[in-house]
Amino acid sequence: MRNPVVLVTGASRGIGLKCTEILLSKFNAQVITLSRTISPELKALASDNLLALECDVADENKVKTAIAQGIERYHHLDGLVLNAGVIEPICRITDDTPLSAWRTHFEINFFSLVTAIKATAPSLRKSELGGRIVFVSSGAAVKGIAGWAPYNSGKAAMNALCRTLAEEEPEIVSIAIRPGIVDTAMQSSIRENGAPMGDEGHGGFVRLHREGLLVKAELPSHVIAALALKGPKTLNGQFVSWDDDVCKEFMA
């Protein structure tokens, strides 16, 4: 049986990097990664089974070209992990943050998803293993966290896109997953730049870090990697947490 092929966006660090490591080492997958830079950690995974491409996911043409290059290399595509995203700008709706900053956020966190889906859908439809898309979402999609106006909105839009895709492409299993509050560079940015959240909201994230309560990236990443290859149709269009009962069989 041939190796499965999975494309991961935002793979240079955090969840994307861990997901890539797990796909390569545990699931014997061939992995195509798209990231703005190739980090030393990603570079260290170099093998014939990894095609790491520098690509700004907000650039539609570059994403299309990179995906075509990856599919040409491995001839198939079975899974797509849509992980690339930013938290910035951390701002309040009525502050003086320019609308251009919101637009940049949505180019990365939402419109890049549409580009990737359009570019990969033909291959995912033909997958012998059954095509799957995992959207790395957030609890912010269903909350109104102060200071996270763009992020809350973008993740809610992501979940809506997942639900709609499940209706339009029922043979491609689409799942949005909440990875929890993970110990990543994004959390560092929140602690350093979280003043717009207010003292209580910002203080909560600082406390989680101080008390060692952040989720280790490898835990939700294993679930994400497994779902990208084995996600069941019963989860198509669903938004689930990485530690929900329905994900237990996909945990490390």
TrEMBL record:
Keywords for this protein: NADP, Oxidoreductase
Highest taxon above the source species: Eukaryota
Signal peptide bounds: none
Pfam families listed in its UniProt record: adh_short
InterPro entries attached to this UniProt entry: NAD(P)-bd_dom_sf, Sc_DH/Rdtase_CS, SDR_fam
Nucleus listed as a keyword: no
Entry's family note: Belongs to the short-chain dehydrogenases/reductases (SDR) family.
Protein name: Short-chain dehydrogenase
Organism: Marasmiellus scandens
